[in-house]
């Protein structure tokens, strides 16, 4: 269903929401959901067991989990406002991945422990750097539908 379709085919003239979590968006929802759980679990365990060892790294993993969770919610919610919000969050996520990833490549000793975004997401098969790019492509495409 596109934004130009009516909700029930009637003459009501109301525009239906484009469902961001359908088609390829469903795969994004799945990946973002899995990464929400992975980043949150990692950061919670690390903060409980050894927060003093690498607080910046563990807080960054928690921030990643929050960003992933918000993008997941936006994709599931759908609609133009959620699409725009998710697009901004994907751009912020990509900036974070590039910043932290580059920082860890240039100065490996900068963090006492790895984050989800360290080395551009190497510990997660580089999905943290691929996911926001894919998300932004999908969200930009969804605008034109």
UniProtKB/TrEMBL annotation:
What are the UniProt keywords, alphabetically?
Membrane, Transmembrane, Transmembrane helix
Judging by the UniProt lineage, the source's domain of life is Bacteria
Query: Where does the chain cross the membrane?
Result: 27-50, 56-76, 85-104, 124-140
What name does this protein carry? Integral membrane protein
């Amino acid at each position: 269903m596109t934004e130009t379709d009516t909700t029930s085919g009637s003459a009501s003239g109301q525009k239906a929401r484009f469902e961001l979590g359908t088609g390829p968006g469903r795969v994004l929802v799945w990946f973002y959901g899995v990464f929400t759980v992975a980043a949150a679990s990692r950061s919670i365990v690390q903060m409980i067991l050894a927060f003093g060892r690498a607080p910046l790294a563990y807080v960054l993993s928690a921030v990643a989990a929050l960003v992933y969770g918000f993008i997941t919610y936006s994709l599931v919610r759908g609609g133009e406002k959620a699409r725009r919000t998710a697009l901004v969050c994907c751009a912020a996520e990509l900036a974070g991945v590039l910043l932290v990833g580059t920082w860890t490549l240039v100065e490996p000793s900068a963090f006492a422990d790895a984050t989800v975004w360290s080395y551009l997401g190497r510990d997660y098969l580089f999905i943290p750097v691929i996911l926001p790019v894919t998300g932004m492509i999908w969200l930009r495409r969804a605008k034109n539908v």
